[in-house]
Structure prediction request, 552 residues.
Amino acid sequence: MGDLRAYAALGTAQLRSATSYRTSFLVELFGNMGATVFDVVTVLVLFRATPAVGGFSLREAVLIVGLSSAGFALADLTIGNVDRLKSYVRAGTLDAVLVRPLPALPQLLLMDLPVRKALRVVFGFVVLGLAVAANDIDWTPGRVLLMALTPIAAAAFFGSIFVISASLAFWWVDSGELGSAFTYGGRDFTSYPISVYGGWFRGLFAYALGFGFVAYQPALALLGRPDPLGLPAWSGYLSPLVALGAAALAAVVWRTGIRHYRSTGS
Amino acid sequence: MDQRDASVPTISRISPFRASATTFGALIGSGFRRYATYRQATIAGTFTNIVFGFLRCYVLLAVAEEAVGQRPAGYDAGQLALYVWVGQGLLSVIGIWGWTELADRIRSGDIAADLLRPIAPVTGFLAADLGRALHAMMTRFGPPLLAGAVFFPLHTPARWQTVPLFAVSVILAVIICFGCRYVVNATAYWLQDARGPITLWTLGSGVLGGLYFPLRLFPQEVAVALWVATPLPSLLQTPLDVIAERDGPALQAGLVALQAVWAVVVLALAGLVQRRAERRLVVQGG
Prediction:
């Protein structure tokens, strides 16, 4: 109970500080939603030039981008700010977090909770809803369950990527934008049918790193389409398992990193 | 500390032009050296540029493959690939994102020290930014282009004037981008906290500058309106169209001329905003 109260205090303090410059906060709130809007607009603009991308029609592509955006926005809101870890490690302020009697990761997340990203989540789920309505999905109990689980699994997967790439700062403080290649890069990768990517690049991101199971494979399972790349029909249902695996790996990396951490000293 | 820092010459009364040129040059040098110290971040940033290059290039090539006549918005596959990879290289040269120095200094009150210097803030920050751009051009422009050339067939410029025009276009783009960022940051003089305008800038400059997709994919009227009414397409779209030879020689040169107009307008605007701000400025702090 005491823990929960402490977390709530951290969260509300963050909310108060974010809203203290009200104009800037409102602009940021809508500006951040705009970022997700533009991701979707990009897909629409590309389809102006062509009837199909990678063998997928606009409706199908919107389902993929909807799953990806909803999951990413959710992860970015709750876990995304862990990527500020490198500035804490550099400045030594992580020490203050570690001496408190609460686990470090939830504290870090609540200390920086980006309230300004809230509308992104709303928009991501609106796109997903429209995409589901636009596609003629043959609903079975399995598909209903998959539909409910996929955005959560996607968020868990992206969240794990955020934690793993932020943990890099424990070993390499000057890693700069490197993590973005996998967090924001992963979002861009999952926004399109993976059949557009070339051989080894697709192999690396989709199967070795697991991004193929965030939106593409579940979308195929929902649409009842065979995979043009040859994976069996049930592979879409693997996405929650892939997300669990990623979360377990992220936990191990985070713990190892925290143990590895040596303060900058004075 | 570097000894040269202490010997930056000030403007003298005897030869004012030469002295201010020396000062400007010294500030460019200091901007260059400042970014040259972040070597590891440079490597990490280059890696990220290359990953995004792959992502964008594959998507645009997939669009080209199934588009009518395989030329979406008038680019062939080689031109699209060149567009993406040169764009990834230019991203950090132009420096669209992440510059909040002026806004931070206004908020903290450090701007007071800048106002005491014998050089106007717009000029001083511009010189430092040119130094930053020079460093980025030498370190971060080449690798993405090389990666692109290894993995994709790139369009090779055929006209003699393309490369010189591209060089001019990049310099103008750096100046325009600096001016825009200056104005956006300067809103902190009025708002104290420029996060909102900076968010809008980050958002608009990427999409309407041509980073995510060529603006020619928009309906033609929209693309022309953006070019004429906003400086944003002059940031990336123009240099990229110049190097990819998307248009005939006349339009190619015309776009660069339009950039020159925007460079003058945006710098003048930055100067105007700065002067207005100085009249009402109350420095924060005790």
About this structure: Residues 2-260 of chain A form one domain. The mean pLDDT of chain A is 88. DSSP finds twelve helices and no strands in chain A.
